[in-house]
Design brief:
Blueprint (H helix, E strand, L loop, with lengths): L4 H6 L11 E5 L2 H18 L4 E6 L9 H14 L6 E4 L8 H12 L3 E6 L5 H13 L7 E5 L2 H5 L1 H6 L3 E6 L1 H6 L19 H17 L2 E4 L8 H13 L5 E4 L5 H7 L4 H16 L5 E3 L2 E3 L1 H16 L6 H6 L5
Parallel strand pairs: 1-2, 1-8, 2-3, 3-4, 4-5, 5-6, 6-7, 7-8
Antiparallel strand pairs: 9-10
Length: about 325
């Protein structure tokens, strides 16, 4: 049987998979419903589910109404179309509502969830506690995403990313800045300061590096200036091109398309990748020369990953490339 480029080039790494480049958060009922509807509409438009919808318990649940909110999230997850990618952010493992969130939501709707986001993860022990809770709720294969929100958690990012249950790490910008007790100015939370303040930049790079070292997905933090589309697009481009992030949070529907655009390969990048991967396949993956440049498995892997991002973000692919993403009969 002819092997697919993914199997040849990524090998064991292929098991880690890739995630949509946008993770959209909402916690108010009307917005959660609208987010799920928008996901379905854009999946039809792009021919792929191009963003996750994460239903938020941590910030979405009113104080004292955590159980009722968990019940609502459960019903929304169960009612979502089968092709949806729906996740949930539960409360932190040391919060009184954590255990109920997991039992109520994962216990009933675990089979419909793509992952569970755990906020305020400080140690590997927090990840292990969350994993045990998911196992007890009947979802031993459900991936965990962790939100890194403090200087101590950044210090432990490599160990947290190494946990086999972790699929992705996200950076919690606002809590990270607040954790410094005023040592980082408020501007460090803004669209400009978060890319220039040394402590914030260091944290972002540590998290991205930890994820890439362990084959996990680094997910970039929020941009709170959600009405400034140009600033949002610029931030997403910097997150991808300069900081190594392959996924980013959205907190408003208007942020989804700029993230998709910034984290999708260009038409030129796609065309080049198709030419190189096709030539490599024809040469049985031996070294080749294209446009006067040497290419081998290292560059083949790079260009294949360009095509995977293109496919994941709904970019138009030529027929030859589409065949690589069509399951064998």
């Amino acid at each position: 049987m002819k092997q697919q480029p993914r199997d040849v080039l990524l090998g064991a790494q292929a098991r880690t998979g890739i995630l949509p480049v946008c993770d959209h958060y909402s916690g108010v009922e009307a917005r959660m419903r609208k987010s799920l509807q928008l996901q379905a509409e854009m999946a039809q438009e792009f021919g792929a589910c191009v963003f996750d919808v994460t239903l938020d318990c941590e910030d979405g649940a009113p104080v004292g109404g955590e159980a009722e909110h968990a019940a609502l999230v459960t019903e929304l997850a169960l009612a979502a179309p089968a092709a949806s990618r729906v996740a949930v952010r539960v409360h932190a493992v040391d919060h009184p509502a954590f255990a109920h969130d997991v039992q109520a939501i994962v216990g009933r709707a675990g089979a419909r969830l793509c992952h569970v986001m755990v906020p305020k993860v400080e140690t590997v022990q927090d990840v292990e506690a969350a994993a045990r809770a998911l196992d007890a709720a009947g979802a031993p294969q459900l991936p965990l995403h962790a939100l890194i929100e403090s200087p101590a958690a950044v210090h432990r990012a490599f160990d947290i990313a190494a946990h086999p249950r972790i699929q992705s790490l996200s950076f919690g910008l606002m809590d990270f800045v607040s954790a410094h007790g005023g040592a980082i100015p408020e501007a460090g939370m803004g669209v400009q300061g978060q890319f220039t303040h040394p402590l914030v930049v260091r944290a972002k790079l540590e998290i991205a590096s930890a994820c890439h070292a362990q084959g996990k997905v680094p997910s970039h933090c929020v941009v709170t200036e959600f009405k400034d589309r140009a600033a949002m697009a610029a931030a997403a481009r910097r997150a991808a091109a300069e900081f190594g992030y392959t996924r980013m949070w959205s907190i408003h529907p208007d942020q989804i398309r700029p993230i998709l655009e910034a984290m999708s390969p260009s038409a030129g990048e796609i065309d080049q990748a198709v030419r190189i991967v096709a030539a490599a396949e024809a040469a049985a993956w031996a070294p080749i020369s294209v446009d006067g440049k040497l290419h081998d498995r290292a560059s083949y892997r790079f260009h294949w990953q360009v095509l995977e991002r293109a496919h994941q973000t709904g970019r138009t692919l030529p027929d030859e490339a589409r065949a690589w993403f069509t399951p064998a009969p």
